[in-house]
């Protein structure tokens, strides 16, 4: 029930005004995706490393309608997902990597270039 309320709140924007996500630094985000080892689970165009196949490929993620099948794909929601995936999908295998707000914003800026 709580998960439903959280997701409904996010989808409808009923949880109060969220400030829009400030624009991030896409190049810094690309480097952070490598630093955090995201490529060990995902294929991410432009990020060095041996891609894993635990998570979905992130190519074209900017065009997807939902993130992880549960969140509408917006920059704000993507940053929230990166920072705390279990809050939105408790059974996800995506780990909480303790990504900071500014770092998530930069990662999102890069991921949104993958159209």
Structure description:
- The chain has 115 residues and is mainly alpha-helical.
- The chain has one domain (2-13, 25-111): Immunoglobulin-like.
- Helix content is 39%, strand content 3%.
- The chain has helices spanning 2-12, 26-35, 75-83, 85-88, 101-111; strands at 66-67, 71-72.
- The protein has a two-stranded antiparallel ribbon with strand order 1-2.
- A hairpin with a 3-residue loop joins strand 1 and strand 2.
- Helix 2 crosses helix 5 and helix 3 packs across helix 5 (101-111).
- It starts with a helix and ends with a helix.
- Mean pLDDT is 86; it is low at 12-19.
Short synopsis of the structure:
The protein has helices spanning 2-12, 26-35, 75-83, 85-88, 101-111, and strands at 66-67, 71-72. It is mainly alpha-helical and 115 residues long.
List the helices and strands and how they pair.
Blueprint (H helix, E strand, L loop, with lengths): L1 H11 L13 H10 L30 E2 L3 E2 L2 H9 L1 H4 L12 H11 L4
Antiparallel strand pairs: 1-2
Strand content bin: under 5%
What is the 3D shape? Answer: globular
So, CATH architecture?
Sandwich
Low-confidence stretches: 12-19
The CATH class designation is Mainly Beta
- CATH domain topology: Immunoglobulin-like
Our measurement of the CA-to-CA distance between the termini, rounded to an integer number of angstroms, reads: 34 Å
Structural category: mainly alpha
Fourth-tier CATH superfamily name: Cupredoxins -  blue copper proteins
Number of helical regions: 5
Main beta sheet, described?
Answer: 2 strands, antiparallel
